[in-house]
Specification:
Keywords: Hydrolase, Nucleus. 31% of the residues lie in helices and 12% in strands. It folds into three domains: 76 residues, no CATH class; 210 residues, Rossmann fold, CATH 3.40.50.1000; 138 residues, BRCT domain (Rossmann fold). By secondary structure, the protein is an alpha/beta fold. The longest helix has 18 residues.
């Protein structure tokens, strides 16, 4: 056996990772395991030992190639503990693995799709956050649902209720034909794996690709640095844009699935959860189906370019998004705070531009839409000019449905009435609410709710510009008949 053969056979890291990736590709590995039993690093031969440093990776602080203990002077690598607990690889090795994954997926004409859990695929709430008046409703739903296809789970060992988003099983089955699927949640490891088992009990869809908050390299941030895939060939489906600061161009933002009252309150929609309204999304025409259609179109365009090795999903996704409001010219009226010196940095202005609209500072005859929270002089002028007058939720509905929504479904409120506003004031508030709700939610830190009290939730978002709590416009249920849940 020559030296190269000995190196190949002795590379424990490569063997482990190849086995892991082969298992996840075939879909025969459960996401609830820690991976295969770690092999004790053997004493390397002189030929193998001479190849280190640099060390390709460590398992529990021991180099898998040469068996040496990790030294403080060794390079800080990339932690891949979701593949195997205690696994860390060098940046060079991580890059090699990314290229290998990319080559494998491209050969199968697939992209990598990263899926968020909370408010994207499902909604979880702890027992303590469920208002008592809804306990019997939930129990009745559990009793009435189909045993072979449950959508609502009571998880006593986690003291948690979990409601799957309508259409999620169909979504996953269809998505796996065009994408390799991975989960990335801000919940902890146990929560991530429990939810993955609910969605994928046989391990066919996710395999070992279940990433949790402890795997992230920064707190409260999701990043593709822990994902084995090329950024240009990765799409992300998540309800929270702020959690992906470096990869917004890869993101398909989905409307939040707020089934339980506590989470609706966290995001500023007290009283407007789907459970309280006794409705649910449509499985066939809801948010998941809409987003999947967009992502499949991007996947088709990606491989239609001829050279998949240089194609990039990001400009394709951007172009698709900018077509939504192409030709629309927006004038805002009393939507920006009075002390906003530069309206172009306001989230609604940026959203409109991202959707392809042109935003104006002053009124002119070419305005097509006036966006306002209440009736103003500009809205009266616009109506006199037969222009569209809508509230800000229209922009968000266009973004979530990937189409120009019908304007007459988004009227402005009379002066002094509650405004219909979708997101919190700032990205920081939105991110704080999302973190508080991750993994089933955290209890409010100021005080615990008394028995029978309504749950506000930690970090509940304030209404924009000091208006009353917003009346949420749910695009998913506004566009099709509601489905009664009780």
């Amino acid at each position: 056996m020559n030296e190269s053969q000995e190196l190949d056979s002795g590379d424990e890291l490569a063997a482990l990772l190849e086995a892991e990736l082969a298992g996840t590709e075939e879909g025969n590995e459960s996401p609830a395991r820690d991976g295969p039993a770690a092999k004790k690093p053997r004493l390397a031969s002189a030929a193998v030992a001479s190849s280190c440093p640099p060390h390709p990776g460590f398992m529990g602080g021991i180099c898998i190639r040469c068996g040496a203990l990790k030294d403080e002077a060794d390079e800080v690598g990339v932690a891949l503990s979701y593949i195997h607990r205690g696994l860390e690889v060098s940046r060079h090795e991580a890059e090699r693995m990314r290229q290998g994954t990319a080559d494998r997926l491209l050969a199968h004409r697939k992209l990598l799709l990263i899926l968020d859990l909370d408010h994207t695929l499902l909604n979880s709430n702890r027992f303590q956050d469920i208002p008592p008046q809804f306990e019997h409703v939930l129990h009745a739903q559990v009793e009435a649902q189909q045993a072979d296809a449950p959508m609502l789970y009571r998880l006593p060992h986690m003291k948690m209720w979990t409601k799957l988003r309508p259409g999620v099983r169909q979504f996953l089955e269809q998505a796996k034909e065009s994408f390799e699927l991975a989960v990335y949640t801000m919940g902890d490891r146990d929560y991530a794996r429990e939810m993955a088992l609910l969605l994928d009990p046989g391990g066919r869809l996710f395999g070992g690709r279940v990433i949790s908050s402890g795997d992230s390299t920064q707190r409260h941030v999701k990043d593709l640095d822990v994902v084995l895939g090329r950024e240009r060939a990765v799409l992300v489906l998540d309800d929270t844009e702020g959690v992906w600061p470096r990869h917004r161009d890869n993101l398909v933002q989905i409307e939040r699935y707020l089934y339980f009252p506590a989470d609706a309150a966290r995001f500023g929609y007290r009283g407007h959860s789907l459970l309280e309204r006794a409705v649910d999304e449509s499985a066939e025409g809801g948010a998941l189906a809409t987003c999947l259609g967009v992502m499949e179109q991007v996947q088709q365009q990606f491989f239609a370019q001829g050279n998949a090795s240089t194609a990039d999903v990001r400009p394709l996704l951007q172009a698709s998004r900018r077509r939504i409001l192409a030709g629309v010219r927006v004038l805002f009226s009393r939507v920006m705070p009075r002390d906003c010196a530069d309206p172009t940095v306001h989230p609604l202005w940026q959203l409109a531009v991202k959707l392809g609209a042109e935003c104006l500072r002053n009124a002119d005859d070419w305005v097509t839409h006036v966006v306002a929270t209440n009736i103003t002089d500009k809205t009266r002028w616009a109506e006199g000019q037969a222009m569209h007058v809508v509230n800000p939720s229209w922009l968000w509905c266009c973004a979530y449905t990937w189409t120009r929504a019908k304007e007459d479904g988004f009227p402005v409120a009379a002066r002094g009435a509650a405004a219909q506003l979708a997101p919190p004031k700032s990205e920081a508030e939105d991110l704080a609410a999302a973190m508080a709700a991750a993994g089933g939610g955290t209890a409010p830190t100021s005080q615990q709710p008394a028995d029978g009290a309504d749950v506000d939730g930690a970090g509940a978002a304030a209404a924009v510009d000091g208006a009353a709590e917003p009346e949420a416009v749910d695009c998913s249920t506004a566009q099709q008949p509601p489905v009664e849940t009780s």
